[in-house]
Amino acid sequence: MKFPGRRKLRHYFPVAVDKTSLPRLEVQPKADTYIAGLDETIVDVIAEVDGNFLERYGIRKGLSNLVNSEVATAIYEELVNHNRISDHFAGGTIGNTLHNYSVLADDKSVLLGVMSQSIQLGSPEYHYICHTSSKVDMNHLQAVPGDIGRGITLITEDGERTFAIAPGEMDELTPESISEEIIANSAAFVTCAYPLRHADKPIKSSLLKCLDYASKHNVPVILTLGTRHLVEEYREEITDIIKRHVSVLAMNEEEASALTGHDNPLLAAEKALDWVDMVLLTAGPEGLYLCGYTESLSRRETTHPIKSGAIADFNQWEFSRPKRKKDCQTPVKVFSHIDPYMGGPEKIRNTNGAGDGALSALLHDIAANHFHRIEVPNSSKHHERYLAYSSFAQICKYANRVSYEILSQNSPRLSKGLPEREDSLEESYWDR
């Protein structure tokens, strides 16, 4: 596993030892460090069309249109035959997050979901696999006879974007396909709130089963909220799940407002900390916040400028490392904030996936801590049971850098890892 950023040598351990066996792509639950995640598998297709195309298929311009599999197949085949498709992107909030995690960590993750049992060359399912890191273990996907989800973006001559969404069989994941061993031995389990919309589909029961397994085996659960409208519609159910199962909550400022009733990101994060151990809150041009708990006696004061907002001097202890609240004798709330990296990209090419990118950086740090605790249990890094390897401030920097990379490209998925980052003042401080 690659560790996030440069680290002082005394925290490292030998990695150039001879291997007794060949590396395996498939996850070995009791031998590997990995992140597991459940998602609705979907492929995003981008195509250019004219107004007549939309009329022929009864697609309402400028809106999101739900279509059945037959209509989606007909649309897709016509786009292929007339060479209208400009790009395919493997999609899904958790699919994007696991891919980016595996690219950053150069290590394994496990995707739980469905995949078509018959995949043709050039099909959307083919592109999904081609655009997903080989480090993402898909051996635990459930085979289905039909299509996975297809999200077709139709761009007309005036630049208007219209969406034809075909769920296919992406919500047919059954609880019987979920491996307790995979969840129990993971460094963390990550999922999103989208499956909660489908009370009549097996994927919701599968999600709840995963949450039960994670809670049973004390595996940190990370939940992303999806959209503001989803939170508003299912707020009571989502809040109940958060209180019972979730350790890390990831959301943007609109979702945070819908969940907590606070428009101010800091106050929304503080409210959410009544329910969870850590909050990752992305706030667009305002940057991002990372908030959580640490032990009072172990807290470390920042050397960065002190910031005040809705909470005075809120970043005072941001050089502290995150802990789960239940692992603290005297828990203290910690808040950290960072402005967009380099003020944000000169040209934003894609806003889809920036939050998922930030989350993948946080997952990398959580997994690195899990890995290092197993390999070097007597290290000074583990004299207390921490949730992550780095401090709040350092994770903020890492998450911010990954978000910048996503915003600078067309795809929500990284094609390669980040360039080496310079040591920060915080790292030198931590190593004293």
Write a brief structural summary.
With 432 residues, the protein is α/β, with parallel strands linked by helices.
Keywords:
16 strands; nine-stranded mixed beta sheet; alpha/beta; guanosine kinase activity; IngK; ATP-binding; transferase; UDP-N-acetylmuramoyl-L-alanine:D-glutamate ligase; purine salvage; single chain; 432 residues; five-stranded mixed beta sheet
Number of helices: 13
Strand order of the biggest β-sheet: 7-5-1-11-12-13-14-15-16
Which oligomeric form is depicted?
single chain
Mean pLDDT: 89
Which architecture does the CATH hierarchy give at level 2?
A: 3-Layer(aba) Sandwich
Distance N to C terminus: 25 Å
List segments where confidence is low: pLDDT < 50 over at least 5 consecutive residues.
421-432
Q: In percent terms, what proportion of residues is strand? A: 15-25%
Percentage of residues in helical conformation? 25-40%
Give the CATH class: Alpha Beta
Walkthrough of the structure:
- This protein is of the alpha/beta class and 432 residues long.
- The chain has a single domain (29-40, 92-116, 130-145, 170-430), classed as Ribokinase (UDP-N-acetylmuramoyl-L-alanine:D-glutamate ligase).
- Helices cover 31% and strands 19% of the residues.
- The protein has 13 helices and 16 strands.
- Strand 9 (149-155) and strand 10 form a beta hairpin.
- The chain has a nine-stranded mixed beta sheet with strand order 7-5-1-11-12-13-14-15-16, with helices on both faces. The chain has a five-stranded mixed beta sheet with strand order 3-10-9-2-4, covered by helices on one side.
- The protein has helices at 51-56, 69-81, 93-105, 124-130, 180-184, 202-216, 228-233, 235-245, 253-260, 265-272, 354-375, 392-407, 425-430, and strands at residues 35-38, 42-48, 64-66, 85-90, 109-112, 114-116, 136-137, 142-144, 149-155, 161-166, 188-192, 221-224, 248-252, 278-282, 288-295, 331-338.
- Helix 3 (93-105) packs across helix 11 (354-375) and helix 11 crosses helix 12.
- Pathway: Purine metabolism; GMP biosynthesis via salvage pathway; Purine metabolism; IMP biosynthesis via salvage pathway; IMP from inosine: step 1/1.
- This is Guanosine-inosine kinase.
- Catalyzes the phosphorylation of guanosine and inosine to GMP and IMP, respectively.
- It catalyses: guanosine + ATP = GMP + ADP + H(+); inosine + ATP = IMP + ADP + H(+).
- Residues 134-292 form the Carbohydrate kinase PfkB domain.
